[in-house]
């Protein structure tokens, strides 16, 4: 296999020719070749080059130049590499500009972007039709998708375990207007053709969802081979364990590339307001009719959103979740602003000689 089976297209080929010439002039004629980062194992990554798979790592110069960890090479990236010989690891010298980037707020108290994948065209939002079905969580995944610049597709898996499929579909369509909703059962081989319609040659399709939703099973089902390990979920609460422990790309013969990701128990949003506006388009459109432009939809006079709830045109639980998302993102924005002020003060103090130790934090890989 080579990069042609991993999404290399006429678009990337034409872009590479222009980018390569400019890069090599800046990099003192370092002769680089294209590769795609297909799996991340921590200190090392797996690359697909023109000549096949090869282990690799970022060069020291690249690590030193990148301050934001989210700019380090990630799964899905197209990168420029050199290969010293037939047995040595490849060296990553640069990351090509990304078409899309799927991110979330990293766990912990620090406001920081955690990059999940890059250069994804379509994102399958996998939600199992069992005890784990949750439209409020689905709204969070939709926000992430819209904010990432990818096309979302809601995939309702394990339909063989559900007795009210039509009701669940209606709930999903209610929070994802205009987004395709596909019902599947890998066990009964149902819904495969609808999924394959999105697996066009040269496209990259990622799967995201909670643990136990069936992402790895879908990858195996569409691949026609056991390329991913799977585990059963607990019957009493439909909760699963993390089967997938790292992000990895899998090519589908003569079709797209699939990207499986570890399950997420909790999705903390990393958003620039685009995702919320698209996910809750019905609410934001209704809000245009509020009496006050800065209406918070919490008891203000002339609030069109609350009036719509009273008339039954909007779901109260959906509006409550919209408010929750707004509060969460406002809090995140305040934390990010405080962090930047702190970093600015620290940088100013160092410039005045406040820190002469020469210490520099290593870039997170």
Automatic annotation (TrEMBL):
Q: What does this protein's UniProt record list under function?
A: One of several proteins that assist in the late maturation steps of the functional core of the 30S ribosomal subunit. Helps release RbfA from mature subunits. May play a role in the assembly of ribosomal proteins into the subunit. Circularly permuted GTPase that catalyzes slow GTP hydrolysis, GTPase activity is stimulated by the 30S ribosomal subunit.
Basic and acidic residues compositional bias: what residue ranges? 325-345
Region feature (Disordered): 325-365
What is its cofactor? Answer: Zn(2+)
Q: Which residues form the CP-type G domain?
A: 112-267
Superkingdom, natural source:
Bacteria
Q: Which GO terms describe its molecular function?
A: GTP binding; GTPase activity; metal ion binding; rRNA binding
Q: Which InterPro entries match?
A: G_CP_dom (IPR030378), P-loop_NTPase (IPR027417), Ribosome_biogen_GTPase_RsgA (IPR004881), RsgA_GTPase_dom (IPR010914)
Q: Where does GTP bind?
A: 157-160, 209-217
UniProt cross-references to NCBIfam families, sorted A to Z? ribosome small subunit-dependent GTPase A
Q: What is this protein called?
A: Small ribosomal subunit biogenesis GTPase RsgA
Which annotated residues bind Zn(2+)? 290, 295, 297, 303
Which cellular components does GO assign to this protein? cytoplasm
Asked if the keyword Transmembrane helix belongs to this entry, the reply reads no
The EngC GTPase domain covers 118-265
EC number, as in UniProt: 3.6.1.-
Question: Family assignment?
Answer: Belongs to the TRAFAC class YlqF/YawG GTPase family. RsgA subfamily.
Q: Which Pfam families match?
A: RsgA_GTPase
